[in-house]
Amino acid sequence: MACLLGLDIGTTSTIGILIRLPDEVMAIVSRPVTLSAPQPGWTEEDPRQWWANVCAILREFRDNGTDIEAIAAVGVTGMLPAVILLDDAGDLIRPSIQQSDGRCGAEVRELAAEVDGDAFLRRAGNGINQQLVTCKLRWLEKHEPEAFSRIATVFGSYDYINWRLTGERAVEQNWALEGGFIDLNDNAVADDLVALAHIPRSAMPAKTVSHALLGGVTPEAAAETGLKTGTPVVGGAADLIASALAAGLTRPGDTLLKFGGSADILVAAEKAEPDPRLYLDYHLVPGLFVPNGCMATGGSGLNWFVDTFGQGEAAAAEKAGISIHARLDARAAEVPAGADGVTILPYFLGEKTPIHDPAARAVFHGISFSHGLGHMWRALLEAYGYAIAHHVEVLNDIGHATDRYMACDGGSKSRIWMQIVADILQRPIQLLEGHPGSCLGAAWTAAVGTGLTDDWSGISRFVANGPLVEPNPDNAAVYAEGYRRYRDLYPRLFAGEAA
Q1: DSSP assignment string, 394-450
Q2: CATH code for the structural domain at 3-246
Q3: For residue 363, what is the DSSP state?
Q4: pLDDT of residue 496
Q5: Helix (H) or strand (E) holding 94
Q6: Tens digits of per-residue pLDDT, 243-268?
C-alpha cells in the first residue's frame, strides 16, 4: 500500500512520520527546534530551521533505507497561529512570532476599544485576545515599522513549509480562523477583518482546507528534500486538531487532554458556540467543530523548573537510570495531595485561555521552610490540573458536554501527573498508546486528500488504548479546596483583570 509522509512543525521539535495504509507506522524521526525569548513574554523561532529540519528528516529516512521517491503524498501540521512574514522577493522578514508570544497586550486593548467585541466574537468565532494575528501585526506596525512596511505575505508555520515544498502561498482555515480573519457566516476570509490588521488584502493568501490538494513538490524542493518532483501536498492542519483526530476525538463530548509543550483541552462539538474564554477551530472531519483551550505553557513550564531547580537531582536520577522528570515525580509522590498548601499559578508566559492575560505572571504561593522540592514539583503538576479543571468549568458553562476523557503526548507518560488530573476532575482518563502526535494526523489528511481513503475514523487503527486512570475519591475534597485556592489567587493578585 501507499506510503505517506506527515510533518509536524512543533514548538520544541520538528517531527516526520512515514505511514503505510491501513495501519503501519514505518518510521518516525525528529529534530530539535530552538525557541528564543529575546524579551520577557516574547517567543520567537527561525522558520529556516524548520525547513532545515524537514530536509534532515527526509535524509535520515533515506539513509535508513526508505525510498523517498515512493512517498505518495505529504501532509504538514504545525503550531498555530504562529506569524511568518515574507517580503516581495519571498525572503523572511524576521523570526516568527509564536502563538505563545505575549507582547501585544496594548494592541489587544486597542482593538477591543475600537470594535464591538461581542459582534466580533459572534462573527469571527474567537474573541479579542493575544492569540489574534491582527494584534501581533499591529504590534509590529508600531515597534518594527520597517519590517511591517515590507510585508507581502502573512501565513502560519505549516503554510510556510507548504510554500517551501510547492511554491504555493495559502493559509489553512484554522490558522485564518484563530488569527481572526474568517467570517463564520460564510467560512470565508473577510476583507474588513484583514483590514483590521492594517495590512493590504493581497498579503493574505487564499484560504485552503486541510485535505485539499495544494500543489506538487517543486524541482527545487525535490533537490533539497529528495522527494519526487510533483509529489502531492495537501493544505495542512493545525497541530492540536491533527492530534485530536489521531486520538479518536470524533463524537460530540469526546474530550482530549494534550500534555505537550503547552497543555491543551479539546472537545468535539456539532456546532460552533463562540465564547471569549476559549478558542474555536474547525474539526478535520467536515461539519464538526472543536472548541478548545490552550495554555501558554505545560511541558515547557516543567522543563523550566527542571533546568532552574532540578539539576540537583541529576546524580540520583542517573543512579536510578531514570530521567530528572521521573526523579521529581518520585519526590512528588512522597507529598500528599494538595502539596501541603503550596499553590502555583503557571503563568510563565502570561496566560492564554481562559483568562487571556499576557501580563499575568507565574506565582508560587504558600511556601514555608517545611516545603521542599517535592512539594514544588507536585504543586506545579497540580497547577496544570487545576488549569484544566478551569477549562472544563468554562466548557460546561457554555453547554458543551465533556463525557469521555483521553490523554496524549509526552506528559501523559507521567502516571503521577495523570493521577493528579484524574483526582482533580474526579473523572477517569483513558491513556493512549502508540499515539505519535500531530504528525500522524497530518499524514492521514494526505491520505484523504489524495483519495487513498475516505474514512476519517480509519486513523484510529494506529492508536491503542493504554491504562485507564481512575480517580481516587479520597482526594476529592482536598482538590476541591485546592481548586478554590487556585481560582481565588489570580483575581486577588492581578486585580482588574478578568478571571
Answers
A1: HHHHHT----EEEEESGGGG-HHHHHHHHHHHTS-EEEEES---HHHHHHHHHHHHT
A2: 3.30.420.40
A3: E
A4: 53
A5: none
A6: 999 998 988 899 999 998 889 999 99
pLDDT at position 498 is 44
Q: Which three cell numbers stand for residue 339?
A: 502539596
Classify residue 40 as exposed, middle or buried by CB count within 10 Å of its CB (0-12, 13-18, 19+). exposed
Single-letter amino acid code for the residue at 341: G
Cα dihedral value 139, 141, 147, 153, nearest 10: 90
CA 151 – CA 170 distance, rounded (Å): 15
Point out the residues of the chain with pLDDT beneath 50: 497-499
Reading the block at residue 38, the C-alpha cell is 529575546
DSSP string, 181-238: -EETTTTEE-HHHHHTTTS-GGGSPEEE-TTSEEEE--HHHHHHH-PPTT-EEE--EE
Quote the CA–CA distance of 372 and 329 in Å, as a whole number. 13
Q: Which of 388, 391, 317, 389 is nearest to 354 (CA)?
A: 391
Cell of 430: 483513558
Q: What is the pLDDT of residues 330-345, one digit of tens each?
A: 999 999 999 999 999 9
Cis peptide before 232 (omega within 30 of 0): no
pLDDT digits (tens, 9 = 90+) for 267-309: 999 989 999 999 999 999 998 999 999 998 999 999 999 999 9
Do 25 and 459 form a contact (C-beta atoms < 8 A)? Answer: no
- For residues 462 and 301, is the Cβ–Cβ distance under 8 A? no
